[in-house]
Design brief:
alpha+beta; Alpha-Beta Plaits; three-stranded antiparallel β-sheet
């Protein structure tokens, strides 16, 4: 009996190792054949879940065989397990929901390892997906474990392409057409930049005047960019547009503060020396 138990354990261990290696091999071949980062991520995610299921099923079978070898009758155990399982089912509905939701998330390819998503009001990089939960790491480095049962809406920011939406505010006195010309010029410069050309997939799209704020006319534009590059492109465009506006003398509004110095109860106050300086407006770019 002892030898049989050892053989059962060894056979289970070998079966798990062989099948998991086969899953890894198939995953690599499928990812290579399909090509692309998205295919590789999906294959990695599904491969990890399949390896987990293989280990669980084989381990369960091995445990039952070992119990049979030591003379433990499985019929009462299975009967008791059915009753206990029914009782647990009522108390563990959320756990069952987690597994069902996790299955459909993987089956429908909603999330992959390496995606940047927002789920259950939490956004971050997907580090791991199981049938039970999704592990996210946010921008601050915090790790969040989100049970799949809490996921009702998935916002995935990593598929095919993204849009870098940028709002630019200028003073009311500025000519909108001149501002748009500067914005287009900066967009062309970024597309010609070797560092950003692979990240930007199309020309800058100017939507026009988005709204009128208290002290600014807000214009909206956007770039079609590679997945996960929207934040880098947006930051660089804002940096460049600020420099371009400075060169052209285009004013970007900012909050102003009114100071009252030494005012008495009668409202009298000594005059303060005041000098207003404005930079000379420079010619707009061609």
């Amino acid at each position: 009996a002892a030898l049989r138990i050892v053989l059962i354990v060894a056979a289970a261990w070998i079966a798990i190792a062989v099948l998991q290696r086969m899953v890894r091999t198939v995953r690599i071949r499928v990812a290579t054949r399909m090509g692309g980062v998205d295919a590789a991520r999906r294959a990695e995610t599904l491969g990890r879940v399949i390896r987990y299921l293989i280990a669980m099923v084989i381990s369960a079978v091995a445990v039952m065989l070992v119990l049979a070898e030591v003379g433990v009758s499985l019929a009462p155990i299975l009967g008791a397990a059915g009753v206990v399982g029914l009782a647990i089912g009522f108390g563990a509905q959320s756990l069952v929901k987690d597994y069902f939701t996790g299955f459909f998330i993987l089956f429908e390819d909603q999330i992959r390892t390496g995606d940047v998503v927002k789920i259950a009001d939490i956004g971050g990089l997907v580090e791991d997906i199981t049938l039970r939960h999704v592990r996210l790491r946010d921008y601050d480095g915090n790790v969040h474990f989100v049970p799949n049962g809490l996921i009702t809406t998935v916002t995935n920011m990593s598929r095919l392409y993204a849009q870098a939406v940028i709002d630019v505010g200028v003073a009311y006195r500025e000519n909108v057409d001149d501002v748009i010309a500067v914005m287009r010029k900066v967009g062309r410069q970024m597309r010609a930049d070797e560092a950003f050309a692979p990240k930007i997939l199309d020309e800058l799209e100017i939507a026009g005047v988005e709204r009128f704020d208290d002290s600014a006319v807000v214009l909206r534009c956007r770039f079609k960019v590679a997945p996960l590059e929207q934040w880098n492109v947006r930051r660089e465009y804002l940096r460049r547009i600020k420099a371009a506006f400075d060169d052209c003398g285009i004013e970007i509004p900012f909050p102003h503060l009114t100071l009252y110095a030494g005012a008495g109860k009668d409202g009298d106050a000594p005059a303060l020396p005041l000098r207003v300086e404005r930079g000379a407006r420079r010619p707009l770019p061609a």
